[in-house]
Structure formats: C-alpha cells, structure tokens
Amino acid sequence: MGCKGILGFDYGIVQAPLGPDISGPELVAAVANAGAVGLLRAPDWEAPDYLRELIRKTRTLTSKPFGVGVVLAFPHKENMKVILEEKVAMVQVAWGEYPRELVCEAHEAGVKVVHQIGHFEEAEKAKNAGVDAIIVQGHEAGGHVIGLDGLVSLVPRVVDLVSSCGIPVIAAGGIVDARGYAAALALGAHGICMGTRFVATLESFAHPLYKQSLVELDETKYTNIFGRSRWPVPHRVLQTSFFTENGQLPDHENEDNKPIIGHAVINGIEKDIRLFAGTVPNARTTGDVERMVMYAGEGVGLIKDIVPAGEVVKRLVEETKHLIQQLLNA
C-alpha cells in the first residue's frame, strides 16, 4: 500500500474540478506538473470555443496530461465534443449518467472517463458503462453533494463492487492531509480527490478572502439555501459569519429576487452576483464578498496555510509514505 499512480499519472491524487472557474489553467498546470491529476471545470453552459481556449492555455503551462470536469446536469454536448477533439487525458463527469455509447466514443478519442458518484446504485451504472475510474464522493465533501453516505461506509462497498473489473476507486470528501489519504487507501481506494485543499493554494482562482476564510474558519454546514434558482441541490458551505446569521431561507424564496451584492467575470462572461447566489467569489469578483457563498468540505479545519499546489502534492506524497511506513513498523 502506498502513493501509487492511477490512470497513467505519477500519483493517485486528483484535484477536483472547482466551479465555476476556480480550477483554471494555472492551478491545473501546477497540479499536473507535480505529477497529480489536474482537472479544469467546463463552463455550465455550452461554450466550446472558450473551453478550447482554456485547454490550450493549460497546455502552454504544462506538458503533462490533465483533464476536464463536466457537470451533466447542465448543457454539455458541444463542450464534450471539444474535450474529445482536444484529446485531453480524461473527462470527469458527475450529476447524471454517462452511458456506454459515450464512454466508447471517449475511448475512441483516447480519452479516459472518470465518473463521480454519491450512491451505490450510481456506482453500478458507472461500472456497467465501462468507465475507467470511479470517484466516490462522501457526504463530507464541500460544494454540491450528491449523496448522504459517508466515505467510511460507501468506499468499501464500491471497491467490492468493481474489484473484479480492475476499475480504480478514488475517495473524495473531507480529505486534506496524509491521514485522510492513508485512511482512504485503508478503505480500499486507489487514490483521493480533493477540492477544498486545492482552493486554498496560490494558483487557485478563488478570491483572496475566500482562501483566507478557509484557513481561519473551521466549521461547515450542509444546506440548500444558495443558488436554488440555478441548481437546487444540497451543498456544503463554510460557516461564515454571514451564514451563521442568515442560515435559513424560506422554501419559496431564492436568489432571483434578492439584491445584487457584487459582480464578476466568469468564464469570459460578466455576471451580477445576488445575495444567496450559488456562485463562489473568484479572483476578479468585486462587491460584498463576505456575504457570498464559500463552499468547503468537513476537513477545512485542518487547512492552516495557503501554499503552492505543487507543495500540497509533495507534502501529501511524502507524509503519506512516512505515515504508512510508521503504521507497518508499529
């Protein structure tokens, strides 16, 4: 047991596709250059030309392979065409089914398919579709959370399900350090996927206040009050002072009739940000950033610094190897 690579990468560490544009070319390239799996996030609307630019810009920053994450709940057919045409190393899909026909199409283009799931039944469908790997997202994860099961119970079940097929299982949700990595390996996972830890890096496109809040605050909440109009699914957020004071929103309300509290350019398009919107503040966001949503997983209390993404990967690999060796010698 150790920090072995997966899917042709040096290490079994995946940087989650952080929306809407937090995992841009700079972060993805830094992760890739460190030997881990960096994932761009495709826009939540059809933007094939813009996505092609993102992919090509990333290639100017790294010669290593990387991938793109796609949310299947949003329009994505044209974006997917670009991903296959550009022949990135992998496409990560979530929030919907990705049937065998599309998996075959990706394989014909030389692109691996990684499906993120949050329910055991979803894992069965992904297995039958012939995906190359499965990310198991536990309830501990930050951002939009698919299921209610924790990693400790869900990962072993999925590992048992796919063990005869040789499909690698990647654990996601609340993992930020070597202890989480080692625990995931002990559960039978082949690697880990981290989002919150990579938001708090120098290369992430998150707003500085968002990054600093991840270092300073320790608590998260599972809620459904942000972004109801655009994507009404539960999510885990950082318990900021704004959330502590305004953590309830009547079921019939959403962000559409709330005041505009800021502005941002997101994937090339100018956007107003309303109170209770589901859009996290990126580096170019202006306005009342403290009242904007900040997604975070349950492991946020273990994040103590903002460092280069390559340093995150290096620490994880070295400290996990050391920890496993200590356990074996105990």
From TrEMBL:
> Which residues, by range, are in coiled-coil regions?
none
Q: Name one GO molecular function term.
A: nitronate monooxygenase activity
Tell me the Gene Ontology biological-process terms attached to this UniProt entry: response to cadmium ion; response to symbiotic fungus
Q: Where are the transmembrane segments?
A: none
| Keywords annotated in UniProt | Flavoprotein, FMN, Oxidoreductase
CDD domains given in the database record: NPD_like (cd04730)
Q: Tell me the leader sequence span.
A: none
Q: What would be one Pfam family of this protein?
A: NMO
Q: Which Gene3D superfamilies match?
A: Aldolase class I
Supply the InterPro entries for this chain: Aldolase_TIM, NMO
Q: Which domain of life is it from?
A: Eukaryota
- Keyword Oxidoreductase among UniProt keywords: yes
Q: What is this protein called?
A: NADH:quinone reductase
Organism source for this protein?
A: Dioscorea cayennensis subsp. rotundata
Species lineage = Eukaryota, Viridiplantae, Streptophyta, Embryophyta, Tracheophyta
